[in-house]
Design a protein that fits this description.
It contains nine helices and no strands. The protein is mostly helical. GO terms for molecular function: DNA-binding transcription factor activity; transcription cis-regulatory region binding.
Length: 234
């Protein structure tokens, strides 16, 4: 036994006098946690190197598991990418919903939702963009499309009450305004405008467009004469 090992009966020391590293043991994780970690490592590779750099073998290597274990969770790469995209969009929509719940004014609502969106796009937008560019993964190329109908229904009710607009006008305005944050996110990546400045600009455009409907559009389209009352037939 070597001088190093003398008096130290540890797994690192053996009778032949050689110091050997203890074999690395795989941490046993809950299946849901293992699935999450596999997706996390896939997201990291995509964000840094693109989808083309990804394979089941590469994911296993990054996650510290075998390729066969990755296949136990995902039958193929497209299934994995689709679930990753779904997770990212669901997370974005959830964060926007939480931000909206804390708003006390209409401007506060618009700003909170816009802030969350632009921050997310700034930090993880490249991942979303690369996932949505894959035709076998998603037919949707706009993150705001995810859960859009439910969000539009909710916001339409708020716009109707706050601005006293007819439902059809309020819904159209709400639906159209959904495109502004998406355009702002794309502009952020292309031109690098400071995010706070772009956030202020986007909020002003959304609020300004809805306010204009109340003060301008409704006034210009209001009938000059009331509709004639139809007398009941005796």
């Amino acid at each position: 036994m070597s001088a190093f090992c003398a008096g130290f009966p540890t797994p690192l020391c053996y009778a032949d006098g050689m110091s050997r590293a203890e074999p690395k043991r795989r941490t046993r994780l809950d299946p849901a946690e293992r699935r999450r970690l596999i997706l996390d490592h896939a997201a990291e590779v995509i964000a840094q190197e693109g989808v083309s750099a990804l394979s089941m073998e590469r994911i296993g290597r990054e996650a510290g598991v075998s390729k066969s274990l990755v296949y136990n969770y995902f039958p193929n790469l497209n299934e994995l990418l689709s679930e990753l995209l779904e997770r990212e969009l669901r997370r974005l929509r959830r964060m926007q919903g939480q931000a909206a719940e804390g708003a006390e004014t209409f401007e506060g609502l618009v700003r909170a939702v816009t802030h969350v969106y632009l921050k997310y796009i700034d930090e993880r937008g490249l991942l979303l963009e690369r996932l949505q560019a894959e035709p076998h993964v998603s037919a949707v190329h706009d993150p705001t499309e995810y859960g859009r109908e439910t969000a539009v229904d909710y916001l339409t009710e708020l716009v109707m009450r706050h601005f006293e607009l007819p439902r059809d006008i309020a819904r159209a305005a709400t639906d159209i305004s959904f495109g502004l944050p998406a355009s702002a996110g794309a502009y952020l990546h292309r031109h690098g405008m400071p995010r706070p400045v772009l956030e202020d600009l986007t909020v002003a455009m959304i609020i300004g467009s809805v306010t204009a409907l109340k003060t301008d559009y409704m006034a210009r389209t209001k009938p000059l004469r009331p509709e004639p009352r139809i007398r009941p037939v005796d």
